[in-house]
């Protein structure tokens, strides 16, 4: 399976975490793909830090409006009822706890739900953006990412080695291999992707995992 296919698979699984009526924020990169898979039976309002509420899927070629962009400067579409407001009001919405769920990418997630997703030391970055506010303001924080990094090392670790975006903020992790919930008892394995076993996931994950009694095998 190619990398784009993997990204699409993760995005499709992440869509299941969005509930009817949610106000949701989709982070830059892979999370924006989730908008393409939202069920027609769900009424959702997607919010962007730059001041949009009511974002639709990526535009077709004949729908592109260069003035209509998300926080990642990607062109987007409007859903019915879209509203616009300034950046300060947008962050007031985030900081005020009015975002039900955020779907963000991740570089590392620790065993207690710490998140590192904004920089690798030594590499030039533009800054954290709105991620620090989002992880503390959203009611649920879903992290989507590959299970292993490019070197084949676990991205789900005992302790994050990269600079943190937020401490103890992650609700759930969705990877190309598994779905893992952050619980008071530790990381709980609840779903396994097709082609993997419980032992496979344990070997690819640094912290010890609690395996749910209702774990779904080959769930997606």
From TrEMBL:
It comes from the Bacteria. Coiled coil: none annotated. InterPro entries: 3-oxoacid_CoA-transf_B, CoA_trans_fam_I, CoA_transf_AS, NagB/RpiA_transferase-like. Pfam families: CoA_trans. One of its GO terms (molecular function) is CoA-transferase activity. Keywords: Transferase. Heterodimer of a subunit A and a subunit B. Belongs to the 3-oxoacid CoA-transferase subunit B family. PANTHER family: KETOACID-COENZYME A TRANSFERASE, SUCCINYL-COA:3-KETOACID COENZYME A TRANSFERASE SUBUNIT B-RELATED. This is Probable succinyl-CoA:3-ketoacid coenzyme A transferase subunit B. It comes from Salicibibacter halophilus. The lineage of its organism: Bacteria, Bacillati, Bacillota, Bacilli, Bacillales.
């Amino acid at each position: 399976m190619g990398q784009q296919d993997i990204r699409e698979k993760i995005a499709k699984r992440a869509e299941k975490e969005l509930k009817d009526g949610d106000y949701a924020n989709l982070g830059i990169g892979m999370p924006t793909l989730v908008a393409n898979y939202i069920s027609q039976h769900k009424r959702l309002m997607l919010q962007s830090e730059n001041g949009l509420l009511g974002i639709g899927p990526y535009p077709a070629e004949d729908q592109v409006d260069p003035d209509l962009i998300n926080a990642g400067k990607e062109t987007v579409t409007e859903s019915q009822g879209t509203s616009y407001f300034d950046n300060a009001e947008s962050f007031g919405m985030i900081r005020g706890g009015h975002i039900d769920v955020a779907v963000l990418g991740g570089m590392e997630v620790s065993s207690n739900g710490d998140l590192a997703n904004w920089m690798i030391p030594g590499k030039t970055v533009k800054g954290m953006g709105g991620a620090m506010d989002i992880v503390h303001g959203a009611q649920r924080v879903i992290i989507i990412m590959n299970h292993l990094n490019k070197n084949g090392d676990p991205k789900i670790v005992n302790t994050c080695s990269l600079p943190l975006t937020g401490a103890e903020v992650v609700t759930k992790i969705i990877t190309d291999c598994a779905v893992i919930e952050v619980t008071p008892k530790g990381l709980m394995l609840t779903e396994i992707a097709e082609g993997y076993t419980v032992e496979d996931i344990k070997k690819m994950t640094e912290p010890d995992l609690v395996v749910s009694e209702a774990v779904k095998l080959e769930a997606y």
